[in-house]
Amino acid sequence: EPNIGIVEVPDARMQALADIVKPQRMQYATTEFVDIAGLVAGASKWEGLGIQFLATIRETDGIVNVVRCFEDDNVVHVAGKVDPISDIATIVTELALADLTTVEKAQERNVKLVRSGDKDAAKLGELLVQVAACLNEGRPARTLKLDPAQRALLKPLCLLTMKPVMYVANVAEKGFANNPLLTRVEEYAAHEGAPVVAICAALESEIAVLSDEEKREFLADIGMTEPGLNRLIRAAYQLLGLQTYFTAGVKEVRAWTIQKGDKAPRAAGKIHTDFERGFIRAEVIWWEDLIKLGSEAACKAQGKMGTEGKEYVVRDGDVMHFRFNV
């Protein structure tokens, strides 16, 4: 069974805002991680628990590939050797083969619609040919240059290789620098513009059981400012095109998750659907201005509070207050 963890997105701005507002509570943005066992060759053909794993992946918004980038004779590798690029290739191949099966079934269904004169079906048919060719070459479907309309046509298929991907390189305690295995992963990821986060799982397991004070001392001793897990969480959050805006009051300082590019009414709807439905305007302060000036009143007095309408595109870090009427 997959392990599911809902974690807070680390954000130093939250504490800075709380220091000014003095709220009763704080609520960070969260993201959900679904941890499954590694895919093996043959997963797409029902080997082992392949079908169960693939079904779990299909329900996610993005994929984090954790690959081993350390040598240790005491830790056995399922393939008998440490080769992160080979591990990645296995995952890519299995996901591509699973997608190819999906695409072929979609092509069979689509033929009847094309014959009936369905224009969208004709467009989808042409697109499926491109996707099948890409997958047959062992390349993920996300490497195709598709416009928004084409992506919309493919969305119902829930293709695994269309999902955004990042890589987590599991390194030894001293494997963050001068690590050829890590370098290979970084070079591979660079070709597809995917982020790489290097962490040492052995260190993270030690950090996880410490108190906050012990954690700070431990991190200082090893020359780190925060756990690697924090970097992983933030990278995954960004991978999905997410960003944060804040509400700040005496009852609560809270981070709200929205998509990059969302406008003010959509952001308001994250609080309550009535906020979006009856949206009038948003009062907006940039978080740095609030920290610098020390209060909402001071921001307003110095012209640092803006009144924005329905077309306002929310920035990461905006502190917002909504006016609405329903």
Structure description:
This protein has 326 residues and is an alpha/beta fold. Helix content is 44%, strand content 20%. The strands form 4 sheets. Strands 2-8-7 form a 3-stranded mixed β-sheet. Strands 4-5-6 form a 3-stranded parallel β-sheet, with helices on both faces. Strands 10-9-11 form a 3-stranded antiparallel β-sheet. A hairpin with a 3-residue loop joins strand 7 and strand 8. Helix 3 packs antiparallel against helix 4. It is flat. The mean pLDDT is 91.
**Share in helix:** 40-55%
Taking Cα atoms only, what radius of gyration do you get, to the nearest Å? 24 Å
Rounded mean pLDDT is 91
How many helices in DSSP terms? 13
Largest sheet: 3 strands, mixed
The secondary-structure class comes to alpha/beta
Distance between the termini: 45 Å
Order of strands across the main sheet: 2-8-7
Low-confidence stretches: none
